[in-house]
Amino acid sequence: MIKVRNLKKQFGNVLVLNDINLDIEKGEVVAIIGPSGSGKSTLLRCLNLLEEPNGGTIEINDVKLDTLNYKSRDAYQLRQQTAMVFQHYNLFKNKTALQNVIEALIVSKKMKKENAIQIGEELLKRVGLEKQAKQYPITLSGGQQQRVSIARALAVKPHAILFDEPTSALDPELVNEVLQVIRQLADQDTTMVIVTHEMQFAKEVADKVIFMADGKIIEQGTPEQVIDHSENPRTQRFLRQLV
Ligand code: ADP
Ligand code: MG
């Protein structure tokens, strides 16, 4: 479903992604862990071309792109394959929860408003927010806002959802309601890539864990292999610092 080969990204002359190779199967949940500054966000952002890579190929669900030579149409197609959930939700403040969820359906997908509203209401129900449909983001808790942003990501029916530290900005008591929604998606075989510092959660939902440091994938494997029994000193050092 997702195949990345020799992906490179530099900011100025700093190499932030150094030859990343990645394979993700349909329905797989992949957790990316690693120290701050290791390139986790940049990797997610390159997958949907929010950042322009400096080399390598990205293939998502039959859309294949040579990052050094592609047409804007191919970039558009590639972007359609995934949806992103950000740490700080990034909702439109002047739109209600429902309007946020259906915005892309109306603007990009040119869907009729009645149809979009029906889909939007169903999605809000799925994340437990049917009663908050008409509320503006400022009147919602952080956990509720993040659940709206997950409903918004689901609205475009992406082939994979990319989460960048979805619970890092939340007060501790709000983390679980968001993780619960992600758990449900995992149970429904949604393909997801999740950058997270929640090791317990990663162990529970991830089929595969990737440890990144200094722009490289240092190690990948099952949660047991990488989180519980890593023999890599760099991984061990990172995990020790978390506790
Ligand atoms: P992580 O998400 O693992 O914390 P990032 O992908 O955000 O790491 O950042 C990787 C490196 O790239 C860091 O050194 C960061 O400072 C740098 N970086 C990220 N975005 C930019 C940018 N827009 N301009 C310059 N440097 C950046
Ligand atoms: Mg980051």
From TrEMBL:
- PROSITE patterns named in the record: ABC_TRANSPORTER_1, ABC_TRANSPORTER_2
Q: Which SUPFAM superfamilies match?
A: P-loop containing nucleoside triphosphate hydrolases
Cellular location(s) = Cell membrane
CDD domains named among the record's database cross-references: ABC_HisP_GlnQ
A GO MF annotation of the entry reads: ATP binding
**Does the record's keyword annotation contain Transport?**
yes
Q: Which residues form the ABC transporter domain?
A: 2-239
Name the UniProt record assigns to this protein: Amino acid ABC transporter ATP-binding protein
